[in-house]
Amino acid sequence: MLLCMKSLIFVLSSKQLMDKKLTILLLAACLLGASCCSVREKRVFPLEEMAEGDLAFRCGRGVFSRAVTAAEEEGFYSHVGVVVKDDGKWKVVHAVPGERESKTDFDRVKMEDLEVFYSRERALRGCLVHTGLTDSVLVAGLCRRAVEMARDSVRFDNDYNLEDASELYCTEFVWRLYRDCGIDISEGRRKFVRAFHINGDVLLPEHLLAYAYNDVYYSL
Asked: Is residue 50 domain-resident?
C-alpha cells in the first residue's frame, strides 16, 4: 500500500513538473514570437542622407489610397509630405484625411515622426526623394512654413480645389510650399478627375515624383 502511494506521488509530481516545463516552453515561444514581430516592425531609415525639404511618398492600405493610385497612370504612391527636422528629430509634415487623433479632431495638416508616417499600419510602401533644393535660406523658409501650417491645423481640402489655398490636400500642400520658393515641382502636370464630388484638375503624387524621380535615395 505504501509503495503504491509513493508511486502515485511520484507520478503526480512528474506530471506537475512536465506541466511547468510545458508552460515555460509556451511562454518562451510567445516571447520569442513577440520579439520577432518587434524586429519585423522596425524600419531603418538613412538618417545621414536625409535633408530638410525632401519629399516623403507612401502608399497606404485603405480605400482612399486605392482610389488615388487607381487615378494615376503608374499607381504606385497615394500620399506625400515634406521632411523637416524639429527638436532634433526627423519628421514629416503632410495634409492627410482619415487620421483623426480624437473625436474632436478633424482632417488637417499635421506633423509626425518619420517612424509613424512610415509605420506598417499606414505605409504599404514608400520612398524618400531629394528635390535638389539646396539654398539654405529657401529650405529654412519652406520648413518653417510647413511647421507653422501644422501647428495652425490648416484643414484638409476635401474638395480638392487648387484655386483655394485656405484648405489643402497633400500634393497641393507640398506644391504650394515649393511654389513659394519659386519652384513648380509639378511642372504643370495635372489630371482631370470627375468622381464623387471632384470635378476638375487635380495634382496626384506621381506628378510630383516625376520632378525628382532620379533622386530617390530610399524605398521600402
From this structure: no
| Cell of residue 141, nine digits | 523658409
> Which residues does residue 216 pair with via DSSP β-bridges, in sequence order?
129
Residue for grid cell 524586429: 39
Is the domain of 22 the same as that of 109?
no
Question: Are 68 and 165 members of one domain?
Answer: yes
CATH number of the domain encompassing residue 136 = 3.90.1720.10
Summarised one tens digit per residue, pLDDT across range 81-138 is: 999 999 999 999 999 998 998 999 999 999 999 999 999 999 999 999 999 999 999 9
Give the number of domains in the chain. Answer: 2
The three grid cell numbers given for residue 70, joined into one nine-digit string: 487607381
Q: Which domain holds residue 27?
A: 1-42
